[in-house]
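Board notes (copied after class):
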Amino acid sequence: FVSSASIESINEHAEWFCAHWIPRHLHPVGVALLNEHRRLGDRIILLSASPVLVVPAIAELLGINEVVCTRLEIRDGRYTGQIDGANCKGKEKVVAIKTHLCCEKAPDSTFAYGDSKSDRYVLKWAQHGAWVRRTGIEPLSSDRSVFPNWT
């Protein structure tokens, strides 16, 4: 849907999206977790399967300096409509964060939060993974037998 769209036009839309849509749809539990990690001085990385079209703008709105997301191919200052590399989803999300951090094993005290089925891989990789729900979080146990659907 962005094939041949200019970077400038996409950035303008992302700014509008962040100014008008995102503030009304921020996840209350996610915002609370973000604020707590910020208060503690933790390194915060927004890791998303969503494309680079909006993720950096959302990160800026949230005060997050590091972003790992699905990249899109650009030619002559325009998006081609093709993904550049792998879609940062599921197992590829783990590959992307490992590459970004230059490590195989999750650093000490790594926290990861997710709200979709495809996040299970990164939640399992992190030392402390949790599902984010509207009313709270559901921390994962280190005992994998508690999560039989995980392979």
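Comment from the instructor: The first strand starts at residue 45 and ends at 51. The first helix runs from residue 7 to 20.
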